[in-house]
Specification:
about 190 residues, mainly alpha, 11 helices, about 70% helix
């Protein structure tokens, strides 16, 4: 079984029944990741696997701290002996260090999981923050607005997402720039 096939199967087993909307979101993020194939090269499969797994920490079967990047990464590392790079991407997806700081878990997250390469971190952040909870495409601005509205402006998640907004928008711009460059380079003369 290949990495992506394994990742889809695991994510489905943890999310589809207890959290069908989270499963739909994860499928949408993975679809977005597949669309980045032209700029991901040899890391395309890695990105897609991390994309479909990024929110498994929400699963009631594995949630322990209540902070899904940490719970998901620990489960992948400790229970599934998953690819180290997938684990690091799940641990740090979508500016997780800032949310960890809000939750008093930054030292744990930083101490247990190294950051992955910046272009991969950007790519997963882009995929997550341009996909709605239902799995459809959106803009990073609309997604951030939706998150604040869904959680409420005075929650930990809303505070974190507002702090992370400049980096989220910058990462989206970097990924979109790379996609545009590949598209331009592929045009015949």
């Amino acid at each position: 079984m290949g990495l992506t096939e394994w990742a889809y199967s695991l994510s489905e087993s943890l999310l589809s029944d207890p959290l069908p909307r989270r499963w739909a979101h994860s499928l949408g993020v993975a679809k977005r990741a597949r669309s980045l194939g032209p700029i991901m090269g040899d890391d395309a499969e890695l990105l897609e696997a991390a994309a479909v797994l990024h929110d498994i920490g929400y699963s009631p079967a594995i949630a322990t701290t209540g902070f899904h990047p940490l719970d998901g990464a620990r489960f992948l590392r400790d229970q599934k002996k998953a690819d180290e790079r997938v684990v690091r991407l799940v641990a740090h997806h979508s500016c997780a260090l800032l949310e960890a700081e809000e939750r008093g878990l930054r030292q744990e997250l930083e101490g247990e999981f190294e950051l992955e390469r910046p272009d991969l971190v950007d790519a997963l952040l882009y995929c997550d923050m341009t996909t709605t909870p239902d799995g459809t495409q959106t803009t990073s601005a609309e997604r951030l607005g939706e998150i604040v509205q869904r959680y409420g402006p005075d929650t930990i998640v809303a505070r974190f997402i507002q702090r992370a907004a400049p980096e989220i928008h910058a990462a989206a711009k970097r990924v979109e720039g790379r996609l545009a460059q590949v598209s331009t380079d592929a045009q015949p003369m």
